[in-house]
């Protein structure tokens, strides 16, 4: 039987991905290659919904692709591409814009959050219709599953609504996707303030583990993570957010359960846990950095991987777009 199709996009953030991106998203992408016909893209069209520097965007997009490959995406087992290499995204995006109610788009909470950050008068129409482009991203590939975090649930609902609306008005065209919200997905917190999510924008430099940091810098950040004045190593996100965060990272990286770790560290000091986790992190990031650098040092190989990915993606996207255009009356 054919494998279910999965689609996910990741923003080309400035420089390195962080540990939260890896443990909360990229790791799932790698796993889904085995069970799904998976399409992954670096969403550079979405990246220009806020002001960008062209040279930086180009470099960050390539760097994001290099990191995804370094993390284990295998072009033989998935389709990895850059969104702007597949013009059908913008083309179907326009059709979807014309099917979306203004009020409906206005209810997207992420726009409210992001435009508030920008200053309301600075926010672009592109930022406003970002979720509608995301709808096109998903529907173009007739995706069955969309691996997303809880914060994206509303956008998946919009995708389902618009797919149903199009199908009803113009005839059966799009697969209705189901959110593939990975329940047990790890949420990683800032190492210095474990009550906030680790994030590129909100974390302090010492609280943020960049995957491309020098391994000794990463080890130091782990060892100076904020914990508590107690001494017991126990998973308790309310009373012990710092220790719990370290246990989550440790468990997700090694596959040991939190219960096993609690047992292993019974009667031991926080320092022992931090030292061991620092070693685990160094073991993970060292080859990750090397592999990323190898792709960056060999632009021909990276270009060729991305060109093949775009070609595979376009074969699917063009077919869907042709059907949609035909039904619309083009
Ligand atoms: P950031 O919040 O740093 O800007 P993004 O919003 O670009 O990161 O997120 C990219 C992906 O990484 C998303 O799938 C998001 O759910 C995941 N992610 C980001 N931060 C974390 C975190 N601290 N823990 C778990 N997953 C995260
Ligand atoms: Na996000």
From TrEMBL:
Spans traversing the lipid bilayer: none
Chain ranges for the short sequence motif 'KMSKS' region as given in the UniProt record: 197-201
Any GO molecular function: tryptophan-tRNA ligase activity
Residues annotated to bind L-tryptophan: 137
Subcellular location: Cytoplasm
Catalytic activity: tRNA(Trp) + L-tryptophan + ATP = L-tryptophyl-tRNA(Trp) + AMP + diphosphate + H(+)
Keyword list, A-Z: Aminoacyl-tRNA synthetase, ATP-binding, Cytoplasm, Ligase, Nucleotide-binding, Protein biosynthesis
Pfam (any one): tRNA-synt_1b
CDD domains reported for this sequence: TrpRS_core
SUPFAM superfamilies tied to this protein: Nucleotidylyl transferase
InterPro entries in alphabetical order: aa-tRNA-synth_I_CS, aa-tRNA-synth_Ic, Rossmann-like_a/b/a_fold, Trp-tRNA-ligase, Trp-tRNA-ligase_bac-type, Trp-tRNA_synthetase
Catalytic EC class: ligase
Residue positions binding ATP: 11-13, 20-21, 149-151, 188, 197-201
Coiled-coil features, chain-numbered ranges: none
PANTHER family named in the record: TRYPTOPHAN--TRNA LIGASE, MITOCHONDRIAL
The family this protein is said to belong to: Belongs to the class-I aminoacyl-tRNA synthetase family.
Subunit structure as annotated in this protein's UniProt entry: Homodimer.
Name this protein carries in UniProt: Tryptophan--tRNA ligase
Protein species of origin: Streptomyces albipurpureus
Upper lineage: Bacteria, Bacillati, Actinomycetota, Actinomycetes, Kitasatosporales
Name of the gene encoding the protein in the UniProt record: trpS
């Amino acid at each position: 039987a054919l494998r279910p199709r999965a689609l996910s996009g990741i923003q080309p953030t400035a420089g390195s991905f962080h540990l939260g991106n890896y443990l909360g998203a990229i790791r799932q992408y790698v796993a889904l290659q085995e069970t799904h016909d998976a399409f992954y893209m670096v969403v550079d069209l979405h990246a220009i919904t806020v002001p960008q520097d062209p040279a930086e965007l180009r470099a960050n997009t390539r760097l994001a692709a290099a990191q995804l490959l370094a993390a284990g995406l295998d072009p033989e087992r998935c389709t990895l591409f850059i969104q702007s290499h597949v013009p059908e995204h913008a083309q179907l995006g326009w059709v979807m814009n014309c099917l979306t109610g203004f009020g409906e788009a206005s209810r997207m909470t992420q726009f409210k959050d992001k435009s508030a950050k920008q200053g309301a008068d600075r926010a672009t129409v592109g930022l406003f219709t970002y979720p509608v482009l995301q709808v096109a991203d998903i529907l173009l590939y007739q995706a069955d599953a969309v691996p997303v975090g809880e914060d994206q649930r509303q956008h998946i609902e919009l995708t389902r609504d618009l797919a149903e609306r199009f199908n009803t008005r113009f005839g059966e065209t799009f697969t209705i996707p189901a959110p593939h919200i990975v329940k047990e997905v790890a949420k990683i917190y800032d190492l210095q303030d474990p009550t906030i999510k680790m994030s590129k924008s909100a974390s302090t430099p010492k609280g943020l583990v960049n995957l491309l940091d020098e391994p000794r810098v990463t080890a130091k950040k782990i060892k100076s993570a904020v914990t508590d004045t107690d001494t017991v190593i126990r998973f308790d996100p309310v009373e012990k957010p710092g220790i719990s965060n370290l246990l989550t990272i440790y468990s997700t990286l090694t596959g040991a359960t939190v219960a096993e770790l609690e047992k292993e560290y019974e009667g031991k000091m926080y320092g022992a846990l931090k030292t061991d986790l620092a070693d685990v992190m160094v073991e993970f990031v060292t080859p990750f950095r090397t592999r990323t650098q190898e792709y960056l040092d060999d632009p021909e190989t990276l270009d060729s991987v991305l060109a093949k990915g775009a070609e595979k993606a376009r074969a699917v996207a063009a077919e869907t777009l042709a059907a949609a255009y035909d039904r619309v009356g083009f």
